[in-house]
Task: structure prediction
Amino acid sequence: MGVDIGAHDTLPEASEHPVEYRRVYVWELPVRVYHWINAVALVTLCITGYLIGAPIRAFYAAEAYQQYWFGWVRFIHFFAAFVYLFNFAARIYWGFVGNKYAKWRSFFPLKPSQRQEMVDVFKADVLQVKLHGPISTGHNSVAGFIYFLTFLAFVAQSITGFALYSSMSTSWLPRMFVWIVPLMGGEFGVRFWHHLFLWFFVSFIIVHVYLAFYHDYIEGRGTISSIVGGWKFERENRDK
Result:
């Protein structure tokens, strides 16, 4: 029993008509595990990737034989890259066998109602000129489509990263991407795009965390806690 005071309801309705809520199991355990492994790996990759591109000069004060900090930075970057890749491969698989909130079709705005939801979400989240509209239980249409674009960025970042690694590795996985280097005009071109995607992910992390807390606050349906326990709340009498 509760009062819906989300930004998608008008104030008179929210204050005069209490609404029943029910718990819905949205994010399955594999999705939640993927999310947190990906979060740690991605932050690690961003930090170490930046240090590889712009090493901190203060660490060069000591003699070379007294330190190995840059070697450790590169090792951690490479290790996180492998974790990131295989974790992403597991998420691709779960996109075919998971529940309706995890399946790939939830990332594409194919229905007119989903495209209208994209307009509503843009007005509410970006322009903040609309305070009503449907609230998706899983990802809203904008979030789902942005996550799909992020998955494509994951692929591009993995390809360019392993292409750079291929010149210093004899392992079969990096060597699969050795042909990318001449295709993109040499290592300079590969490194440019790999570094550019770094800032894409930095921007994504900032916006993602902000919107997660924003929706948790205005909707009050457990957005933050759902990625830990898997459960959200939805209105019993809302339109399906």
